[in-house]
Write a structure and sequence with these properties.
- Chain B: Keywords: Membrane, Transmembrane, Transmembrane helix.
- The complex is a heterodimer.
- Helix content of chain A is 49%, strand content 17%.
- Chain A is an alpha+beta fold.
- In chain A, the strands form 2 sheets. Chain A has a 3-stranded mixed β-sheet, with helices on one face. Chain A has a two-stranded antiparallel sheet with strand order 1-2.
- In chain A, α4 packs across α5.
- The radius of gyration of chain A is 27 Å and the shape is elongated.
- Chain B folds into 2 domains: 3-49 and 58-91, no CATH class; 116-194, Cation efflux protein, cytoplasmic domain (Alpha-Beta Plaits, 2-Layer Sandwich).
- Chain B has helices at 6-31, 35-41, 60-63, 67-89, 116-128, 161-180, and strands at 101-106, 110-114, 133-142, 147-156, 186-194.
- Chain B has a 3-stranded mixed β-sheet with strand order 3-4-5. A two-stranded antiparallel sheet of chain B has the order 1-2.
- Chain B is elongated and about 80 Å long.
- In chain B, 28% of the residues are buried.
- The chains are: A alpha+beta, B alpha+beta.
- At the A-B interface, α1, α2, α3, β2 and α4 of A face α1, α4, α6 and β5 of B.
- β2 (108-114) of chain A pairs parallel with β5 (186-194) of chain B, so a sheet runs across the interface.
């Protein structure tokens, strides 16, 4: 799929594995550059640089059963497995679907709320509850985790209220389906 | 909003991952002496290399001293370097915006072209004036006959999101369509929430 075709993609996307791809791309670029530089040196100076011949002789002199070669094979296999999993595992969506409100003349619409926005809505609503002193929240499209701190002894009541209020604000936002809300309460010692 | 190289990354991570996994497993099989038993188990006969075999034969050194081999290494190195650099540059997110729209192109009326930024600036200004909206950005894709608008709206935590979306898909979409004398074919809206309370100059009583 080209990114020069002036066409939209769905806003509900899986992770693009940018970090893993960037690391691999840098390694490939470095290997290619070093190989080219060493070869140009060999062509112009009539021999490979000692920085290449030294390690090359050590590698060539090793046997398949040596500890270093077996360890290298294990490392390559593990890295390959990690890259394979990164490539095929879908990963979580970073946005949740919002219900399309009412009628429109636009034939194709897509409304989403980011996971970060869900967490902020949850934290903002929980922060307004009586007895809550501080809040932190994290979210994905399926679950919202809200952690509040209070100095009140009525932690069970506060937890229930946080769960209800946060669920209510997410329903009011139009999330479809509404994520499950998990609230934990930490009681501060006085 | 901006598009990333999802398919490119996943495809090449999978291909390279499979190659490295198979390569690593092959080295382990040879190094631990399990190559021959494993080959026999699948009906093949493979008794070399053994764990005591050197990685490279003695003639490998003289091979790499030949000029044509050095040239091949240089070419392969340059190609690898360029491919890696290309893959790295592909990580930059792109807006994939539409080319300038040709609204009229006739011998009588002449040619009218409009840059997408002119339209998106107007849309962003309209959206920023809506209640509860802190910021907005828009990207226009598609063609003049089938425009495709994607908008990122940052709303305050007190904004009524369903009402905001309704306004976007009716008033804003209709105004946009009227400006181009056509109908919007696709509207995508991504909502963000900003909890900072000091950005607006309005007072709620």
């Amino acid at each position: 799929m080209s990114r020069n075709d002036g066409r939209s993609r769905s806003l509900r996307r899986r992770p693009s594995r940018t970090v893993a791809a960037s690391i691999v791309a840098v390694v490939i670029t470095a290997i290619g550059a070093l190989a080219a530089i060493a070869a140009i040196f060999a062509l112009t100076r009539g021999g490979w640089p000692t920085a290449v011949t030294g390690p090359a002789r050590a590698v060539a002199g090793s046997s398949w059963g040596s500890a270093a070669v077996i360890a290298a094979g294990a490392v390559i296999a593990v890295l390959g497995l990690i890259m394979l999993i990164a490539g095929i595992k879908p990963g979580r969506h970073k946005t949740a679907v919002l219900r399309a409100p009412g009628q429109t003349t636009v034939p194709d619409t897509e409304f989403v709320l980011s996971s970060r926005a869900i967490a902020r809505l949850a934290a903002s609503r929980a922060d307004g509850i009586d007895g809550v002193e501080s809040v932190s929240a994290s979210a994905d499209p399926k679950t919202v985790r809200v952690s509040v701190t209070t100095s009140s002894e009525q932690s069970a009541a506060i937890r229930q209220r946080v769960q209800q209020e946060v669920t209510s604000v997410l329903e009011a936002a139009g999330l479809q389906p509404v994520p499950r809300v998990r609230a934990t309460v930490h009681v501060k010692g006085i | 909003m901006r598009q990333t190289a999802i398919r490119l990354n996943r495809t090449w991570l999978t291909i390279l991952g499979i190659l490295m996994l198979l390569g690593g497993l092959a080295v382990l099989l040879i190094g631990t002496g399990l190559l021959a038993p494993t080959a026999r188990a699948i009906g093949r006969s493979l008794d070399r290399p053994t764990p005591s075999t050197k990685l490279f034969a003695a003639s490998a050194g003289s091979l790499f001293a030949q000029t044509w081999v050095i040239i091949v290494v240089a070419v392969v190195g340059v190609v690898l370097g360029l491919l890696g650099l290309g893959w790295l540059l592909a990580q930059i997110p792109r807006s994939n915006e539409a080319k300038p729209f040709r609204l009229q192109d006739s011998a009588e009326a002449g040619l009218t072209r409009i840059a997408p930024s002119v339209l998106t600036d107007a849309v962003e200004d309209q959206i920023k004036g809506l209640p509860g909206v802190v910021n907005a950005s828009a990207v226009l894709r598609g063609t003049a006959q089938a425009p495709d608008l994607t908008v990122k709206v940052t709303a305050s935590d007190r904004a009524r999101i369903p009402e905001l979306l309704q306004t976007l898909q009716t008033r804003v979409a209709d105004d946009f369509g009227r400006a181009l004398d056509t109908r919007l074919t696709r509207l995508g809206v991504q909502v963000e929430v900003d909890t900072a309370r000091s950005r607006t100059n309005r007072i709620a009583l």
